[in-house]
Each structure stands twice: as C-alpha cells, then as structure tokens.
C-alpha cells in the first residue's frame, strides 16, 4: 500500500511539472512580439528566400512586419500567414476565413511561418511581378514602388510604408 502512495505522489509531481511547462508555452504563444523580435525570428528565413529566388530580404521582412503586425495579427497567429495571401483558384492547401475587404474571405493557411515566407516568394514569381526581378537586389525603393504598381496592395501609401520600415529598422542590411 505504501508503494502505491509513493507512486501516486510521483505521478502527481510529474503531472504538475508538465502542467507548468504547458502553461509557460501558452503564455509564450500569447506574448506580443515586438518588431525587433519579429526581425530576429524571421531574418534567416527571409535571407534564405532571397538567395533562392532574388526577393530582397528587406522587402520580405518589411511586408511581413506590415501585413502581420510583426506576427501579432490573427491571420499570422492562427494561420501562420504573414503576408495576407488570399486563396486563389490554384491553392489546394488549408484555408482560414476572416473579414478583410469583404466578409469571410478565404486566406491561405500554413503549418509553419516558414511555409508562408516560401509561398510569398512563389507568389511574387507570378507574371504580374516579373518586372521586379529586373531590379537590383538592394533597390528596396524600386521593389516597394513596383509591388504597388503591380497591384500587390490597395493602400496608396504602401510603398512609403515599406520604405519607412526598411529604413527605421535598417532591414537593408539583410540584402
């Protein structure tokens, strides 16, 4: 009988320890990222995508910061979608629905944030963005203006918002 109580006590201690770890993980998930933390977390992925396909890391990071509120938007947290990429007819992956320009719009859902970064690069390889790849990799101003011109965003201030983020956080150093 004594062994039973000892085992029961050990089991209680073990479960209690696991509960504390889970609680800490939940708190971490609720932690609001600063822009600096976002940059630190995703700069390697942005640079990897730049080396693979030529999209400047500064542009990728600035778009991620702007589109996902430094990873804090509902879309980024629940769907790992850091770029606001909506579903298209060729999308066969998981989806997430949220209000945007219209109610209940379909957004792409990713298993990991890195998949969102990779898909962002693939998205920019579409024909409508082809002229951007004629620009120099360090021409972040040209890329920002070209994204707007090609129809990436509807906000008329989009290029300046990206440029301001790049300059404020010195994102050009990752190009």
The SSE string, one letter per element, is: HHHHEEHHH
Number of helices: 7
Determine Rg (CA atoms, Å).
21 Å
Strand order across the biggest sheet?
Answer: 1-2
Number of domains: 2
Determine the strand fraction and express it as a percent band. under 5%
Shape: globular
Main pleated-sheet profile? 2 strands, antiparallel
SS-derived structural category:
mainly alpha
CATH fold naming of the largest domain: Lysozyme
Proportion of helical residues: 55-70%
| Number of extended strands | 2
In CATH's first tier, which class of the largest domain applies? Mainly Alpha
What is this structure's SSE topology?
Elements: H1 2-30, H2 35-53, H3 57-68, H4 74-79, E1 95-98, E2 105-108, H5 113-124, H6 140-149, H7 158-168
Antiparallel strand pairs: 1-2
What does this 3D model show about the protein?
The protein is mainly alpha-helical. The protein folds into two domains: 31 residues; 140 residues, Lysozyme (Orthogonal Bundle). The protein contains seven helices and two strands. Strands 1-2 form a two-stranded antiparallel ribbon. The chain is globular, with a radius of gyration of 21 Å. About 6% of the residues have low confidence.
